Each structure stands twice: as structure tokens, then as C-alpha cells.
Structure of Polyphosphate kinase 2 family protein:
Amino acid sequence: MDFGKRFRVRPGTEFELDSVDPGFHGPHANDVEAAESLKQNLDRITKLQRMLYAEKKHALLIVLQGIDGAGKDGACWHVMSAMDPQGVHVTGFKQPTAEEREHDFLWRVHPHAPRRGEAAIFNRSHYEDVLTVRVHKLVPKEIWKPRYDFINDWERMLAVENNTVILKFFLYISKEEQLERFKTRLDDPAHQWKISESDYTERNYWDDYIKAFEAMLSRCSADHAPWFVIPSNHKWFRNLALSQIIADTLEEMHLQMPKPSVDLDEIRRLYHQSVEAEKRSAGA
Amino acid sequence: MDFGKRFRVRPGTEFELDSVDPGFHGPHANDVEAAESLKQNLDRITKLQRMLYAEKKHALLIVLQGIDGAGKDGACWHVMSAMDPQGVHVTGFKQPTAEEREHDFLWRVHPHAPRRGEAAIFNRSHYEDVLTVRVHKLVPKEIWKPRYDFINDWERMLAVENNTVILKFFLYISKEEQLERFKTRLDDPAHQWKISESDYTERNYWDDYIKAFEAMLSRCSADHAPWFVIPSNHKWFRNLALSQIIADTLEEMHLQMPKPSVDLDEIRRLYHQSVEAEKRSAGA
């Protein structure tokens, strides 16, 4: 099944999250059945990222958004595991600092755009400024409304100017699944420290968030920077879909290993010289 | 076997690399035999890094140095794989840019020092400025000589000021093993692009490098920032030793999960309220 095609938000359409079943899990019944496909995807990513890094022609930007508990951290770790860490940077965008708030909303994001040859993963992103900020009215509508265009302009610039391929994943879980995950945190000593009341009070804004998500998906999916809505109630399926879409995208970039910058026969000669020198010094 | 104790360079001693066998591989005969110990180390790192991140009291800085082919990239990937990527940053230090050269040698390094709660891995580091720079006489002796002290001062400041635990690993391979690895690159299409003549011409400076490594190890191993010389002819052993030392160090930090910032019983009440609300809205 081509998850990229299936989950891609068609640019210029009014997208409704109701059209997606967050419990969808494709042809596999569970993680065990999906394991082999997942492994293949990760192996493809490993191989292709090496070429991306070597060729230095394109950059890859992966954006992860989703409501609390949707699995952004897990997805991030999973994708990273397939990539040589020297070619990929993860940035988590938290509450902006005082200094950041004194700038335009893209100011703190821009420095983390990937250079050619590299991948960047944004765990939350500039989209927070049309999500949380909109839902909680942290700035007036006159301010957040033009941001959809600013985001589109900025992403287009990255795509054109720096060959940045942009993939944006909205991890979609149901309201019930979120509650389940909060429950798990409550029972897990390793997670209790980060529980806050706001986990629950934020749920009162669920419908507002859905509206903000839909606006983002409808207004900011572009051919050069598509949004994908990933059914994420099943973590294993989320990883499977994500890895397939990333691997397929890298494949479509027709990456090529650069030619060696040196004459390999000449280098082989140097190699044999070195071997001879070793032998002599061992004999000496 | 306590690799930390065994491979640690005692502060204030004249260290000679001749005293280390780069082919050493401890009690295990091969990677298969070592697999279970390695897995245990990585599991410990995963668990402890989560606590480091949550507690936000200490920072961890891991420095990797070694001659070309010593396995810095591989070691880096390996260590990273055990850590949640949102709490760790890898920085590879390449040839300094023109702007960087117009500053002191620590200027480009300092911004990458880890914040409390985070780990940073340096793939090459500020030590290049007393290694390559010294060997190739890129700056005169008056300039590189005081740098050992500057490095010690800076690392001590990080340790004292920011609770930064600093672990420095020198990955030590033999001259023959390096040649073997170059040979492998020559035969591997995925690596041919980055082969250069200098791989071989640099070998002419082997003894000078050894001298520079020894000076670095002798002058810059401190209790709060020890150097470890890791026998690295066997990649699996390198990973095993590294992961054990990192896990042991994290353990000695007596990390603790912070207490929840909220009353968990109160949160459980909120949870049950939410469950009830779900039920009502499903019934409605």
C-alpha cells in the first residue's frame, strides 16, 4: 500500500480530520507482522541518507506535529535510529524564550533549517505559532492569520533556494487514545515527573485544536512541502507509515554517490606502497 | 572487567601509547560473545539518560578523538542509538571556516557545550587544535603550546559551573589496522567518494601524530575530565568498552527522577473525570 499517496493532504483542499480513522493500521494486523516491512524501510533510509550526505545536493526537512501524547518523541527516535547521526539534527521547539518572543516567529526556526546533504527533524515547529498560539489566543487574529502565508513563502524559499525536500507529518490520535496514554504515564514512574494538570485541562480545547490542525493542513500542504496525516493510535503503524514515506521520498530524489575525487588506481598504488613500507619496517 | 579503571589515563603522568595494545579485546573472544554485555550497557544508558534529561542537574560531554579510520563515526552512531535523540546533540568539527579562524580556537566549540539535562557528543573537538594543527605546524609553537592549559581551564569551568561530566575517548588503532580499513574503503562503492590521497600521505606523519596524542593524553587528563585510551582494532570491543564506561559514569552520578510537580492523586481524579466525560459524550 502506498502510504504516501494515501495520507498526503491534497494541496488546496479543505481537509477534515473526520475523514481519517486514527486507528487505521493497513494490511498488517500487528507489529510482529509489520516487522519485516519496517526493517526494509529503515534499511532503505540508512542507505539513502548516506547518499544524501555524500552528494550534498539536497536537504531534507522532516516536521512532526501532533497533539500531546501523539508520539512525536517516539517517531523522532525511530526515524533517527536509521540515520547516521552526523548527518541529521533534531530540534525540539518548546515555549519560546523571552528573546525569541521579541522576534518574528520564524527567527528561531530558520537557523535549524538543514544544510544541503543533511536532514533536520523538527519535533514541533513553526506550526506551533498557528496551533497553540491560535487556540490560546496568545496573539490576536491579525497576527496569526497571515502566518499561514508566511510559512508557505518560507518553505517555498527553502525548497527552491536550497533543494530542501520538506515532509510534514501530522500524527493523529483519537481523544480516547490520548487518555489511554496519559493513564500509562500516570502508572509509569519514569514518566510521572512530566505529568501536569494541563495535560487534562488542554483536553477542554480539543475541538479548537482540531480546527487549528485542519486550518494548518488545508492551508499549508504544497507539492514541495506536503502534509501527511498519519493514523497514530498504533505506534508500530505510525513508524511503518513514516518510514515508508521517508524512504520513498529519498528514492524519488534519484540520489547518487559522487564520483571519487581522486584516481582510484593511483590510490591503489599508494595503498600497495604503504603495504610494502609496513613490511619493510616489520622486517627491519 | 572495569574498563573505566583500566583505560583511564592517570592525571599528571607521562602517557605512552606503546603501553597499550590496540588489538586488546578483553574477556570476550568476539562480537557474538560480547553481544549480551553490550546490550546490557546500552539498556543502562537508555534508562540513565532519561533520568539525566528529567533531572536537569548535570550535563554530559563525550569527546571522541582518533586518527583517520579509528572509528569515530561508528562509535558516535553506536552511543547515540541508546539515547533519546531529543536529549543529545552530535557535533562534528571539521576544518574551521574563515570566520572561525578569526576567533580563538574555543569560540566555535563553546556554543555546542551541553546544557544541563543533555548530552553532547563531539566527533573531533577542540583537541584538533593541538593535534592536526600541531603536526602540520598550522600555527607556531607559541600559539599551540598554551592551548593545553586553555583547554584544561575551559573544561574545569564547564565541570564546576554547569555540572558537566566530561568523558574523552581516544580510539586507538594500529598503523596496520588503519591500512586495512583504507583498503576496505577502496573496495566499497559507498565509501570511495571520500577517499583522498591525504589518507595515505598523512600516514607519513604517523609518529608525529603519536607524539601529539601522547602530549594531549598526558597534559589534559583530569579527574573531572579523564581521557580513556580505547583499544579499537576490534570495533565491537571499542563499542563494548565505550558503552560500559558511559553507563558506569552515568550510574555514579546518582541521578534521580524528579518528583512529580503535581499531586498524582489529584491528577488521577482528573483522569477519571475525563473518562466519565468520554463515556457521557459516547452515550449522547
